[in-house]
Amino acid sequence: MTVQNGVIFKRERIVIPKSMRPEMLQRIHSSHLGGESCFRKARDVLYWPNMSAEIKDMVEQCTTCNEYQQAQKKEPLMTHPIPECPWSRIAMDIFTLHGEDYLITVDFYSDFWEVDRLVDMTAATVIEHCKVHFSRHGVPDVVMMDNGGQFDSRDFTSFAKDWEFEHTTSSPYHSQSNGKVEAAVKIAKRLMKKSQAKWSRCVESYS
């Protein structure tokens, strides 16, 4: 261990004193991710004895997480080959939560996903969001999507041709065939519900 400017380090990780651990636990779990995700986020920069077990206990006792705990059930998912590089194959879908519509984009290589709020459900709006993603990450080789009208429209077909990517659709009767994006939608909805619940509780505490 080393000391720098009064801060104790264990190699590159900050050693957290006992008095500050409750606050650090709250910060680690502020986004209401699961226990493993919280621990992975913390272990690179923080250290104290038994940190993993304390993070696990906190997540298990979290009221918000327990309220929105996902029921575990098996669904038939169609597997897809893992691409050789990021952003070469992506999936997209539209979902609705609390009366708002969102576009979710998932990278098959890394499982990284992003959510955009849609001002309307037109193909033009979806295409504009696609252009933003493509300008930031590059144009993918394949875009997989459901059979929504925005993705099946003449405008989107023309967009795919002009930007030179292949767009494919999942089975109209089995949305689970686009398993990557279906799983991401569930996670996104759960996190958004948790954030909304946390915000509502904060408002109530100050009202």
Automatic annotation (TrEMBL):
InterPro entries: Integrase_cat-core, Integrase_H2C2, Retrovirus_Pol_polyprotein, RNaseH-like_sf, RNaseH_sf. GO terms for molecular function: nucleic acid binding. GO terms for biological process: DNA integration. Gene3D superfamilies: 1.10.340.70, Ribonuclease H-like superfamily/Ribonuclease H (3.30.420.10). Pfam families: Integrase_H2C2 (PF17921), rve (PF00665). This is PREDICTED: uncharacterized protein K02A2.6-like. It comes from the Eukaryota.
